[in-house]
């Protein structure tokens, strides 16, 4: 597999993390650099580790994961999206939101990296070494997630309070897309 093919796969896998980072950049108003780094590192690590886990799991769990991966991502992203829409309706919650919680960051990281697990499983079936693609995917995801967060901060000033509801809709849309294109 060529470097460019791996880079293309890495960019495709990073798109969900990028979109989630943009949507959170719209909402979060303080400590932007810290949050951008937090999203970049967390999403990058999950996107790097999940293909390795999938690759190691190999054929023994392929049938289980390939049948439910899109549902796991759908429920996680939709649940978080609905919560964000609900919270956007309450002005005081909007004003209080200054940072993302660790459990929420972990759920977002997991939800956006489930497809990377499936890629790792596929690579094991094709006898493709996983270390290089996993590292490249992690780096690409880290960079795109941090950049996406900063893009979201630019968009956030234009949308103000409605931004959190829009961000929630984006997450739900990503989850639905996973079901449709499964």
Question: Kindly, what is the distance between the CA atoms of the first and last residues, rounded to a whole number of angstroms?
Answer: 24 Å
Average pLDDT figure? 80
Structural class: mainly alpha
Shape: globular
Would you identify the regions where 5 or more consecutive residues have pLDDT less than 50?
91-96
Question: Strand fraction band?
Answer: under 5%
Number of strands: 0
Reading the helices and strands in chain order gives HHHHHH
Helicity, in percent? over 70%
The domain tally reads: 1
From the alpha-carbon coordinates, what is the Rg to the nearest angstrom?
16 Å
* Tally of helical runs: 6
- Sheet with the most strands, sense and barrel status: none
Short structural summary:
With 182 residues, this protein is mainly α.
How would you portray this structure in words?
This protein has 182 residues and is mainly alpha-helical. The protein has one domain. Helix 1 runs parallel beside helix 5, helix 1 runs antiparallel to helix 6 and helix 2 crosses helix 5. The longest helix has 57 residues. It is globular and about 50 Å long. About 3% of the residues have low confidence.
Keywords for this structure?
single chain, 182 residues, mainly alpha, 6 helices, 88% helix, globular
Explain the layout of strands and helices.
Layout: H1 3-27, H2 32-88, H3 91-96, H4 102-125, H5 131-159, H6 162-180
Helix pairs in contact: 1-2, 1-4, 1-5, 1-6, 2-4, 2-5, 2-6
């Amino acid at each position: 597999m060529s470097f460019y093919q791996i880079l293309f796969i890495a960019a495709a896998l990073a798109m969900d993390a990028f979109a989630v980072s943009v949507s959170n950049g719209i909402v979060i108003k303080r400590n932007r650099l810290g949050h951008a780094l937090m999203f970049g590192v967390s999403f990058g690590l999950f996107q790097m580790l999940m293909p390795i886990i999938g690759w190691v799991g190999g054929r023994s769990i392929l049938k289980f994961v390939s049948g439910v991966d899109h549902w796991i991502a759908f429920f996680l992203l939709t649940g978080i999206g609905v919560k964000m829409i609900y919270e956007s309706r309450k002005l005081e919650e909007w004003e209080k939101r200054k940072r993302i919680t660790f459990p929420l960051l972990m759920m977002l990281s997991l939800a956006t990296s489930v497809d990377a697990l499936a890629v790792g499983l596929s690579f094991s079936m094709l006898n493709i070494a996983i270390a290089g693609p996993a590292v490249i995917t992690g780096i690409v995801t880290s960079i795109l997630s941090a950049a996406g967060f900063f893009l979201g901060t630019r968009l956030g000033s234009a949308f103000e309070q409605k931004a959190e509801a829009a961000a929630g809709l984006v997450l739900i849309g990503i989850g639905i897309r996973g079901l449709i294109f499964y």
